[in-house]
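Read as amino acids, tokens; as here:

___
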Amino acid sequence: MAMVITSKEIADNLSDYTNTFGGNPVACSIGLAVLDVIQNEKLQSSAKSVGKCLKDGLKAIAPKHPMIGRGMIVGIEIVTDKESRKPAPEAADLLSHKLKENKIIIANEGQDKNVMLITPPLCFTCDNARHIVQAIDTALAEIEKGASEAGLNQSSFGENRMDIPLNILSMPSTSGYSSEESDFDSDHPKDIPPKFNITYS
């Protein structure tokens, strides 16, 4: 359902527009039923409380990572380090891929594609939020484990800082993903893998 609200002056200057399916009773009834569900099940206020569950869970597994969000819209910024905040899109790609393996789709957004954007539906529950948090925590642990060959050292701030060769982050070749999805390190020679850091507590 959609509507345009404007002044009479503007509306009078617009030409008439018709649509084959516009305003039909079935579509309007469905739209009203959806609005009733949103109101009766208090989904807007639920979004606020479930959003708090989601953010609290994410803060618990990564308290030193910056959090961006309001309600159930939350962004996790993946950067090389806290000081420079240089984007780490390769790490974000890997995290996204690992979550897809668990049937969780979280998009990489932002100019540098390094922000994991969580935008669940209004019917999302705290149990769903805990499931997402656990999946992210597991995926980050797998990334950390996979990086151990490249060297894992403790920084002076008590953070685990990993120098990860980019070729470790190459997506495995699977039939479920296109070459465009998996070949995010194609710009770098395999024999000279560049490095970046992930700061993870």
Notes: Confidence is low (pLDDT under 50) at residues 149-201.
